[in-house]
């Protein structure tokens, strides 16, 4: 308390903390997605996949996954998708609630 | 405040006393709430316990819903406030520099400011539908007018002799603007920003209730719609905490910096 | 009025003129912005059948009820809390937090508790005003210098006497200045509450019209909301605030 600091230092520190947190989270998400996609052998072409979540999906998750391909079925924690764009899949798989991505012959 | 004697050398114990008491108050409140639930005996969707709320919080984090909603809300808020503030300051200075323009436009600005942003949302929905655009425009609107108004007031109160003096001493128009007008108007601008930021935060929550499919306002609304009241309360608590953090780390420091550098900031409550 | 004041009306006139001319120049669906005569005719209708007045009266009644409930509960409680340093220190962070939960965020919960209708709307207004007033009361009472406390006590002031002589007047400036902000938030809470949880009132009238694309009603509702707030602010809150500040001294925090 003896030394007076400029008030805006707090603002800068808070902003920095937010940026670092979001950066770290994004970086973690990318790594997570890369791991899931390489395990599933996702190539450059569109494909069919089963995504296993860490829980049964709610509307929130279904809406998000519908955006990356044709959602065929939700079975327990498994979401069955056809014609999934690999780039969109990479984005979606950054979410920590996706446990596994597997190729699927489709229906 | 009573403890204003607090000089640098306050013992640690004394300094910790207040936060400790505050924490005690919050703990007592939570305890009373938790204990009251079995006594009242109402359905959990009607009167959830703090433990239900904590469970809902953990669930929302585990499922990745809360982080996404917080980021969505914050992003909308930051973008809206930034655009509104910038436009408000620029236009306020431009209008304020001309006495005729100020007289011409002040009543219009007052009138538009009085139509609260909440009332604009229906027509925005008609024009732009439900979604991001409507929310962003509503937020920009609600920040824009207080900033514009207060910038205008700030610029208009710069004494003309001061401007003349700088001009006589060879200052260019740009120098007058940068060294006289803006510094003099800054406290007033900051007042406008504080007012606008407060209204905008409420506006954001309302806009998300009415016109969004993500965000904290939507979480509050959807939780209630689906009788997951504990989720609604998680949303409300998040909203409160977020506002406290914005106030503590952004609005208050900016205000304090302005006061230290340029003098008095008018109490934020006194818009007009 | 001096001619100077009139120039402020020019933008309004221009806006009305643009509104009248626009449909002739640009082609757009009329629900986006109904032609001026249509809105005028509609205004005649809702004024004529008294429905506009009905909505306004109900909205204002709710605001008044919410205000009285909020202030009536908050002022005594605030004084009681503020008189004891320990109680005040214990409750202040909690109250700061509760105040920072925007009133609008309470609307969905209010619907669960009170159902759609007047109960929810009044609850949200009262809630908004209660927390704002409570906080202001505590700050106001604590801002009274200790020396004054001792002076009144040494002259024999106790209990009710202390409250009427010192505490109420001492906290009044902070309170009344706070009212204006509280009402600004309360007004927003009213409009928002009526939009989400209302069955009538100005907010309901405005949002209900969106479903039927009755844009003329939406526009009239907005203008009414703006005009009524301007009237309340300029005719009631600003004069009261000015009178109080002049009578009781400089506002400081």
Architecture overview:
The complex is a heterotrimer of chains A (107), B (272) and C (253). Chain A has 107 residues and is α+β, with helices and mostly antiparallel strands. Chain A has one domain (8-103): 2-Layer Sandwich (Alpha-Beta Plaits). Chain A contains three helices and four strands; from the N terminus they run αβαββαβ. In chain A, strands 2-3-1-4 form a four-stranded antiparallel beta sheet. The longest helix of chain A has 33 residues, at 8-40. The radius of gyration of chain A is 19 Å and the shape is elongated. Chain B is mainly alpha-helical and 272 residues long. Chain B has two domains: 8-41; 45-262, MetI-like (MetI-like fold, Orthogonal Bundle), CATH 1.10.3720.10. With 253 residues, chain C is mostly helical. Chain C has one domain: Orthogonal Bundle (MetI-like fold). Chain C has eleven helices and no strands. Chain C is elongated and about 80 Å long. Chains B and C meet through helix 1, helix 4, helix 5, helix 8 and helix 9 of B and helix 2, helix 5, helix 6, helix 9 and helix 10 of C.
Write the layout of secondary structure elements.
The complex is a heterotrimer of chains A (107), B (272) and C (253).
Chain A: H1 8-40, E1 47-53, H2 59-66, E2 70-75, E3 78-84, H3 86-92, E4 98-103
Antiparallel strand pairs in A: 1-3, 1-4, 2-3
Chain B: H1 12-40, H2 50-62, H3 65-96, H4 99-114, H5 117-128, H6 132-156, H7 160-168, H8 173-211, H9 216-225, H10 229-262
Helix pairs in contact in B: 2-10, 3-6, 3-8, 3-9, 4-6, 5-6, 5-8, 6-8, 7-8, 8-9, 8-10, 9-10
Chain C: H1 3-6, H2 10-25, H3 36-48, H4 51-83, H5 85-100, H6 107-114, H7 118-142, H8 146-154, H9 159-197, H10 202-211, H11 215-248
Provide the descriptors you would attach to this structure in a database record.
A: Alpha-Beta Plaits, four-stranded antiparallel beta sheet, B: 272 residues, mainly alpha, MetI-like fold, 2 domains
Compact summary:
The complex is a heterotrimer of chains A (107), B (272) and C (253). Chain B is mostly helical and 272 residues long. Chain B is 81% helix and 0% strand.
Can you tell me the CATH class of the largest domain in chain B? Mainly Alpha
User: What global shape of chain B is seen?
Assistant: flat
> Helix- and strand-based class of chain B?
mainly alpha
What kind of sheet is the major sheet of chain C? none
């Amino acid at each position: 308390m003896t030394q007076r600091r400029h008030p805006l230092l707090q603002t800068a520190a808070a902003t920095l903390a937010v940026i670092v947190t979001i950066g770290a989270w994004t970086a973690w998400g990318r790594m997570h997605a890369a791991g899931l996609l390489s395990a599933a052998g996702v190539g450059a072409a569109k494909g069919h996949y089963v995504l296993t979540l860490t829980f049964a999906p709610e509307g929130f998750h279904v809406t998000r996954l519908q955006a990356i391909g044709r959602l065929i079925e939700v079975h327990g924690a498994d979401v069955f998708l056809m014609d999934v764009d690999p780039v969109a899949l990479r984005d979606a798989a950054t979410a920590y609630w996706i446990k596994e991505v597997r190729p699927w012959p489709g229906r | 405040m009573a403890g204003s004697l607090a000089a640098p050398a306050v013992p640690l114990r004394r300094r910790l006393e207040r936060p400790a008491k505050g924490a005690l108050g919050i703990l007592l409140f939570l305890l009373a709430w938790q204990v009251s639930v079995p006594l009242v005996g109402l359905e959990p969707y009607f009167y959830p316990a703090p433990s239900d709320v904590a469970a809902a919080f953990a669930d929302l984090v585990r499922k990745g819903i809360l982080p996404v909603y917080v980021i969505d809300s914050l992003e909308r808020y930051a973008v809206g406030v930034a655009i509104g503030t910038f436009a408000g300051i620029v236009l306020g200075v431009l209008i304020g520099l001309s006495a005729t323009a100020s007289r011409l436009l002040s009543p219009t600005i007052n009138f538009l400011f009085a139509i609260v942003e909440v009332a604009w949302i229906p027509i925005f929905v008609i024009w732009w539908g439900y979604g991001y655009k409507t929310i962003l425009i509503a937020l920009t609107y609600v920040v824009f007018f207080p900033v514009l108004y207060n910038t205008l007031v700030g610029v208009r109160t710069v004494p003309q002799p001061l401007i003349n003096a700088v001009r006589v001493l060879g200052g260019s128009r740009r120098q007058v603007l940068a060294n006289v007008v803006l510094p003099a108007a800054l406290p007033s601008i900051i007042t406008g920003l504080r007012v606008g930021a407060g209204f905008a935060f409420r506006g954001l929550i309302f806009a998300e209730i009415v016109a969004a499919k993500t965000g904290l306002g939507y979480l509050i609304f959807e939780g209630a719609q689906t009788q997951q009241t504990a989720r609604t309360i998680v949303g409300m608590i998040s909203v409160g905490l977020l506002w406290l953090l914005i106030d503590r780390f952004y609005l208050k420091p900016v205000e304090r910096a302005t006061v230290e550098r340029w003098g008095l900031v008018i109490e934020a409550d006194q818009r007009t | 009025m001096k001619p100077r004041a009139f120039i402020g009306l020019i933008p309004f006139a221009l806006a009305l003129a643009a509104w009248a001319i626009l449909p002739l120049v640009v082609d757009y669906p009329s629900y986006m912005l109904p032609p001026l005569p249509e809105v005028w005719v509609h205004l005649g209708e809702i004024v004529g059948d008294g429905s506009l007045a009905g909505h306004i009266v109900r909205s204002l009644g709710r605001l008044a009820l919410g205000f009285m409930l909020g202030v009536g509960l908050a002022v005594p409680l605030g004084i009681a809390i503020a008189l004891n340093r320990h109680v005040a220190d214990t409750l202040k962070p909690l109250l700061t937090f509760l105040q920072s939960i925007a009133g609008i965020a309470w609307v969905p919960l209010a619907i669960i508790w009170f159902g759609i209708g007047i109960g929810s709307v009044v609850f949200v207004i009262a809630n908004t005003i209660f927390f704002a007033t409570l906080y202001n009361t505590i700050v106001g009472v604590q801002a009274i210098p200790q020396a004054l406390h001792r002076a009144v006590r040494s002259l024999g002031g106790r209990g009710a006497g202390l409250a009427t002589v010192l505490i109420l007047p001492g906290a009044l400036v902070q309170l009344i200045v706070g009212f204006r902000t509280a009402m600004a938030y309360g007004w927003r809470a009213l409009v928002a509450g009526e939009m989400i949880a209302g069955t009538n009132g100005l907010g309901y009238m405005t949002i209900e019209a969106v479903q039927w694309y009755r844009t003329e009603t939406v526009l009239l509702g907005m203008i009414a909301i703006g005009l009524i707030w301007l009237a309340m602010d300029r005719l009631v809150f600003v004069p009261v605030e000015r009178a109080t500040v002049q009578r009781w001294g400089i506002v400081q925090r």
